[in-house]
Amino acid sequence: MALQMDAAALARFMEVEFPQTAGDFVIDEVGEMRIRVRMPVAHRHLRPGGTVSGPSMFALADVSVYLAILAMIGPKALAVTTSCAIDFMRKPAAGVDMVCECRLLKLGRVLAVGECLLFSEGVEAPVARASLTYSIPPER
Amino acid sequence: MALQMDAAALARFMEVEFPQTAGDFVIDEVGEMRIRVRMPVAHRHLRPGGTVSGPSMFALADVSVYLAILAMIGPKALAVTTSCAIDFMRKPAAGVDMVCECRLLKLGRVLAVGECLLFSEGVEAPVARASLTYSIPPER
Amino acid sequence: MALQMDAAALARFMEVEFPQTAGDFVIDEVGEMRIRVRMPVAHRHLRPGGTVSGPSMFALADVSVYLAILAMIGPKALAVTTSCAIDFMRKPAAGVDMVCECRLLKLGRVLAVGECLLFSEGVEAPVARASLTYSIPPER
Amino acid sequence: MALQMDAAALARFMEVEFPQTAGDFVIDEVGEMRIRVRMPVAHRHLRPGGTVSGPSMFALADVSVYLAILAMIGPKALAVTTSCAIDFMRKPAAGVDMVCECRLLKLGRVLAVGECLLFSEGVEAPVARASLTYSIPPER
User: Fold this and answer.
1) pLDDT at D101 over 90
2) D85 touches chain C (CB under 8 A)
3) Distance between CA atoms of D61 and D114, rounded to whole angstroms?
4) Between C83 and which of A130, B27, B68, C133 could a Cys-Cys bridge form, CB atoms 3.0 to 4.6 Å apart?
5) Which backbone phi and psi does D88 adopt, to 5 degrees?
6) Could you say which of B56, B59, B81 has the minimum Cβ distance to residue A88?
7) By CA distance, what is B124's nearest residue in C?
8) For the residues C30-44, what does the mean pLDDT come to?
């Protein structure tokens, strides 16, 4: 199954469709059924003590699965998150980017399932894990 | 078990400890093991089509469980989210607040579990449900 | 929306379709978008110390959501579990039935979401909570 | 961190502590922070159509994380499951064993997190994924 969108095409799609958040995320690398997305940590992501907030990590996992799906099926479909299970396991390191390694475990006609490991850049032990389900609406 | 903090005390705590996000949430009502928190929907919460973003809903559920715990144990403890499972069930209504009805199912010495239903104000069917686990560190 | 199957019809359906497990569960009460199912605790459900096993509690939550769906849509559809998030919060009481209070939060054309609280009979604090998603295949 | 128990020691522990279910599971291979456990599929695991039941898959994931933890910390601790999120993605193949590939993402002093992929033996696409949290009680 060939990629329908590469990193540049995904980035342009985000700028057009999600101008409010596109700048939050950088696509490091995209492949078949997998993607690596980076979140440069800015002041607005932080909680007291310099830690990255849970909602910011959720957002990173969510956008990663979304982009991994679009890379495979192209920009035409409007996929929506139907569920997420996320475990926060360690405190993120201060002052470094968060990196999300995501792979799709299933890409069906109507449902997709992705799983993510989130890391503080340069630290081996994962900060969080997440699994997400997306619903892929039928094309009109 | 008496409340340790009322809505006004929780709001002041948020303003001091989480100045970046305190304005996003309004405490409607707090009781024993339960709270209702409102998120006035602003432009930054929105996705294309006027829908509230998943990360915004996650943030609302997360802060609701956090505040429900603090109301019971007081401002001294630093509780952290350890896991969340969230289901997005319906598209939020446009142009109205999101309201989170949260109750604590367990408030143990080291772990707390809360569950939330999220509604678009004035609409009966819930938009999302979430369950969250918090770890409560021992006092030093 | 009227009930398509009452408790007796659901019990007969289970005996025919799931003869291996039908005897494990008793339908206490069924209503619109809700059901209460009881699991008489037998030796095979137990773990050391007399506690009910996690898989047994999962099975009780799973069958409860399944039956709540069938009560609403009738015996013709073959619904399958697509996901479950379950939190085990307290040790079950020894020697008493487990009771599951389940309600459907969504019953869509292709997806249903149910949530459950599991109790040891006669004990107020819940032993576990679970949320489950079912996929409802289109009729042929 | 050296293994505290090998496959043979884990199997003996299961026979003594969980005689009711020990025969259901075979430890294929155990390593640091990881294990592969096999469930020979018997009649009692099946649902109509020859598919493996959800509770059986839950049980396989649950025991896999439990054994992966014991392999690292030894038989002295009484770990209990506190939560599980599981996604059922594909119908299992008929007539073959289920195999669970499990790794521990975190093994803290009080909490452990493991994730599992479940396969029908000989089939590449996973049948299910699961993440589980265990609580590790302090030693007395």
Assistant:
1) yes
2) yes
3) 9
4) C133
5) -95, 115
6) B81
7) C105
8) 90
Cross-strand pairs, B115 = B103, B131
Q: What is the pLDDT of residue A50?
A: 65
Distance (Å) of CA D98 to CA A68, C21, D23, D128: 28, 20, 14, 10
Long-range Cβ contacts of C11-18 (<8 Å, 24+ apart): C13/C70, C13/C75, C14/C63, C14/C67, C17/D48, C18/D47, C18/D48
Q: pLDDT tens for residues D30-43?
A: 999 999 999 998 76
Please name which of B123, B128, B78, B133 lies closest in space to residue B97, comparing C-alpha atoms: B123
Q: What ipTM score was computed for the predicted complex, to two decimals?
A: 0.92
Alpha-carbon gap, residue D95 to D103, rounded angstroms: 26
Contact B18, B44 (CB under 8 A): no
Q: Quote the Cα angle for C3-C71-C41, to 5°.
A: 135
Per-residue pLDDT, A78: 82
d(CA C24, CA C28): 13
Distance CA D128, CA D67 (A): 19
Least confident of A53-67, C36-50, D69-83: C36-50
Comparing CA positions, the residue from B65, B79, B72 lying closest to residue B116 is: B65
What is the pLDDT at residue B47? 64
Residue with tokens 């110390």: C49
Return the pLDDT at A67.
97
What does the alpha-carbon distance between residue B112 and residue B108 come to, in Å, rounded to a whole number?
A: 6
Interface test with D, best of B80, B81, B83, B105 (most D CBs within 10 A): B83
Nearest 5°: phi and psi at A125? -75, 130
Report CB contact under 8 Å: A111, C83.
no
Most B-contacting residue of C83, C86, C106 (CB-CB within 10 A), to test interface: C106
Write out the H or E segment, with its range, that includes residue B56. helix B54-73
CA D58, B113, B131, C10 torsion-angle sign = positive
pLDDT digits (tens, 9 = 90+) for A66-115: 999 999 999 876 899 999 999 999 999 888 999 999 999 999 988 999 99
Neighbours of chain A (3+ CB pairs under 8 A): B, C, D
Q: What share of chain C is helix, strand, coil (3-state, %, to 5)?
A: 25, 40, 35
- C93: nearest Cα among C127, C42, C139: C127
Q: Going by C-beta distance under 8 Å and a sequence separation of 6 or more, which residues neighbour residue A93?
A: A120, A121, A122, A123
What is the Cβ-side half-sphere exposure of residue B77, based on CA atoms within 13 angstroms? Answer: 24
CB atoms within 10 A of CB C40: 13
The band of B139, judged by pLDDT with boundaries at 50, 70 and 90, is low
C36-50, C107-121, D47-61, D83-97: least confident range: C36-50
Distances (CA, A) of C66 to A53, B28, C73, C107, D33: 36, 35, 11, 11, 35
Helix (H) or strand (E) holding B28: strand B26-31
